[in-house]
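Exercise 7.
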Amino acid sequence: MSEVLQKVRATALRELPVRCLIAALTSGIAGLVAFDAGFVAAETLRKLSGAQIRAKFTGMQLTDEVHYRFAYERDGTLRSFAMGVKKRGKWVIDKDQLCLYLQESDDGCYDVTLSGNTFTLTPAGLGSPLDGILQPISDPQ
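Solution. The predicted structure, written as tokens, is:
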């Protein structure tokens, strides 16, 4: 029995440097990927000011090109088209936030960030962020 244990220990000791090398390489690669992704995201993510939000959103629509679109009319009218349901409300800029009012439970203000062509609206309170792209309003009224 002790002979078998000695052989098992010897085999385990021979494999230990290889296992350590694999673990170190895996950790190093994962760390570099995480660092690189964080660096790219931090580099391109930009919070917009109230003036920037107004300049970008006025006369445009925010959409994911499938499920929803929000049309930001020049007069402050907000038209929402989501999953076949049309709604009308208003949009305003309050300090450095975009505020949307459609008489829904999640009405309120959002921080707006831009990364590449993607805008992210993050609610000031509870709720999930909303991502989309801006494009000219497809059905101006």
